[in-house]
């Protein structure tokens, strides 16, 4: 495989949409829609309870997420909440140049968020967890704003 940037690419990917399986669909929909500002662009049929969709697609400035309820039989909750919060198998990084604004906004809304700090890879970043414990990283190259 070649790493040359001018080589012809065999697959023309035009987007990336992670799917998150969540324990509480209404809470997750409200977190991403009402707190982070994602638009709810497509869902399963109308739910019996508000925001309790069988699946939902959300979008913000070209960034998409899919949410679906986590099935207890297919993927049960871990033994303890600590087990879930200590997961390190996946995180979502959002490119975001306004880290100080995001920090102040999330903190003013009662979200446990870290102060923006320098990373080992040359970015400034802040860290937060969504309602299911998925790590979210808002980051931007240092010195580029």
Structure, described:
The chain has 145 residues and is of the alpha/beta class. The protein has two domains: 15-77, Roll (2,3-Dihydroxybiphenyl 1,2-Dioxygenase, domain 1), CATH 3.10.180; 78-145, 2,3-Dihydroxybiphenyl 1,2-Dioxygenase, domain 1. 18% of the residues lie in helices and 28% in strands. The chain has three helices and eight strands; from the N terminus they run E-H-E-E-E-H-E-H-E-E-E. The protein has helices at residues 25-35, 81-85, 99-108, and strands at residues 19-22, 39-43, 56-60, 63-69, 92-95, 117-118, 123-129, 135-141. Strand 3 and strand 4 (63-69) form a beta hairpin. The two termini are 34 Å apart.
Helix content: 10-25%
CATH evolutionary superfamily of the largest domain = 2,3-Dihydroxybiphenyl 1,2-Dioxygenase, domain 1
Structural class per helix/strand content? alpha/beta
Q: What is the tally of helical segments?
A: 3
- What's the CATH first level of the largest domain? Alpha Beta
Low-confidence stretches: none
Strand order of the largest sheet: 1-4-3-2
CATH 2nd-level architecture of the largest domain = Roll
> How far is it from the N-terminal to the C-terminal residue, by CA?
34 Å
Task: Specify the overall morphology.
Answer: globular
| Mean pLDDT, all residues | 85
Strand content: 25-35%
Radius of gyration: 17 Å
Largest sheet: 4 strands, mixed
Assign the CATH topology of the largest domain. Answer: 2,3-Dihydroxybiphenyl 1,2-Dioxygenase, domain 1
Query: How many domains make up the 3D coordinates?
Result: 2
Would you list the SSEs in sequence order as H and E?
EHEEEHEHEEE
Total count of strands: 8
């Amino acid at each position: 495989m070649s790493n040359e940037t001018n080589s012809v690419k065999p697959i023309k990917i035009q987007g990336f949409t992670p799917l998150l399986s969540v324990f509480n669909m209404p809470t997750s929909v409200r977190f991403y829609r009402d707190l982070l500002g994602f638009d709810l662009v497509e869902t399963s049929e109308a739910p019996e309870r508000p925001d309790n969709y069988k699946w939902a697609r959300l979008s913000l400035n070209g960034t998409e997420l899919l949410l679906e309820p986590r099935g207890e039989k297919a993927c049960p909750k871990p033994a303890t909440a600590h087990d879930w919060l200590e997961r390190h198998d996946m995180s979502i990084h959002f490119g975001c140049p306004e880290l100080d604004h995001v920090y102040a906004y999330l903190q003013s809304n009662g979200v446990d968020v870290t102060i923006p700090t320098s990373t080992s890879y040359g970015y400034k970043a802040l860290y937060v967890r969504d309602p299911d414990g998925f790590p979210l990283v808002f980051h931007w190259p240092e010195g580029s704003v």
